[in-house]
Amino acid sequence: MKIIFNKEIIYVLIITIIVAIMDISGIPTTLFLNLSLFDINPIILSLFINFIIIIGFIFLSRKLLFPSWDFAFNKKYLVEGIKKYGGVTLLIFIITTLAFYIGLKPFNYNPSVYKIIFEGIIYYIGVGLIEELYIRGLLLNAIEILFKKRNNSTLIAIIISSVIFGIGHIFGSIDSSLLVIVSKVIWTISLGLFLGVIYKRSNCLLLSIIAHSLIDFSAIAFVYKKDFYYPSVSLIIIIPLYIALGVYSIYVYKKGIYFY
User: Fold this and answer.
1) What number of other Cβ atoms are within 10 A of residue 155's Cβ?
2) 172-223: per-residue pLDDT in tens?
3) Among candidates 72, 59, 70, 71, which has minimal Cα distance to 15?
């Protein structure tokens, strides 16, 4: 099996690793920023500012090191992509939201509207944008090029990038139980398969950014809790759902069909 490296791919992989470290660790903003605004979590504020820095770093790196790199934003394919994949995305969002609602109630915190909007919506737009930029836009495409001599290079890239995406979420759950850590890895690998498939099938990164952000909005229920944890009841609902989503995504890709 021949793997093809060139200078552009090496640059992309290096930038992807740096961005992943910045995203997971919150560096550099968590080192020197401790903002306070209304009742918004200061860590969330710092991480969001870090997102802005990361976006600038990615596009500056692209301009200087790999100017011909195509993220495939392709606005012209967005509407068609929403028609084909919007329904299943909305369904996943609704079921995940209900799962968190069932598992987290009764709620014990009355957040301000600023906290609801920022932590429940704006922050997750940032998460969707950043993770799609470097997981799908950089890493997945780089892996696909590395294996381009293989007939199934795109599928290999979707699977490998999804596994890396899932493993990367271990660091955000390091203080959780083993059950939660394993569940979150399985959950995010499966989500990665879905997002990778709709990205490559639609050739539109904007679509996967919107889908990722919408699904993440399901976590808005956590804003109404004083303490952060993943309820077992929620995981029992979510994990089988996402495993089915991941498996079906691969089936959809291999068969060349759609989700409806």
Assistant:
1) 19
2) 888 888 889 999 999 999 999 999 999 999 999 999 999 999 999 999 999 9
3) 59
Give residue 217's identity as a one-letter amino acid code: F
Residue 79, token pair as written in the block = 């509407």
| Dihedral sign from CA coordinates of 247, 201, 219, 35 | positive
Kindly tell me the sign of the dihedral angle through the C-alpha atoms of 165, 171, 176, 178: positive
CB 19 within 8 A of CB 54: yes
pLDDT tens digits, residue range 9-57? Answer: 999 999 999 999 999 999 999 888 777 888 899 999 999 999 999 999 9
Q: What are phi and psi of 150, to 5 degrees?
A: -90, 145
Who's near 213: CB < 8 A, 6+ residues apart? Answer: 124, 125, 127, 128, 129
The H or E element that residue 112 is part of is: none
Total residues belonging to the chain: 260
Residues 6 or more apart in contact with residue 206 via CB below 8 angstroms: 73, 74, 75, 78
- Backbone Cα Rg of the chain: 18
Task: Confirm whether pTM is higher than 0.90.
Answer: yes
H helix runs in the chain, sequence order: 7-25, 29-32, 42-65, 78-104, 113-117, 123-131, 141-146, 153-168, 178-202, 205-216, 232-255
Rounded distance, CA 145 to CA 184, Å? 29
